[in-house]
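Table S2 (text version). Query chain:
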Amino acid sequence: MPRVGQGSGVIISPEGYIVTNNHVVADADDLEVTLHDNRTYKATVIGADPSTDLALIRIKEKGLPSLPFVNSDEVKVGEWVLAVGNPFNLTSTVTAGIVSAKGRNINILREQFAVESFIQTDAAINPGNSGGALVNLSGGLRCSFTTPAP
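Corresponding structure-token output:
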């Protein structure tokens, strides 16, 4: 019986490169990306790293809006951030919160050489948000966030 999963991602270049979490795409036979305007594309995995729970996928499209990276080492405890994703298969949700800690290791990655250094926030993040964006109030990408598996 085929299994269907969901997650979120962040377009990081106009050429269709999208960052998400490895656990969102791991073991997938087919990937389908739906943009906020309901355009749908087949995607391919360019690379994945289970030890950091990151994956890079690509859709065949050009001229896409993308988020600029900002240095996540410069995030400040108390800074306001926005979590953007698709929890519970909802489209394009945004929640706000503050950064309450940096460099958290909570042992959710099950890889032998896992690297965890999470930004902790009180912004609501739910199943399906994995791979979504945590951005500063200027729209700069702080990180792609991970939600624990149920």
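Notes on Table S2: The domain at 72-144 is CATH 2.40.10.10 (Thrombin, subunit H). The chain has two domains: 10-59, 72-144.
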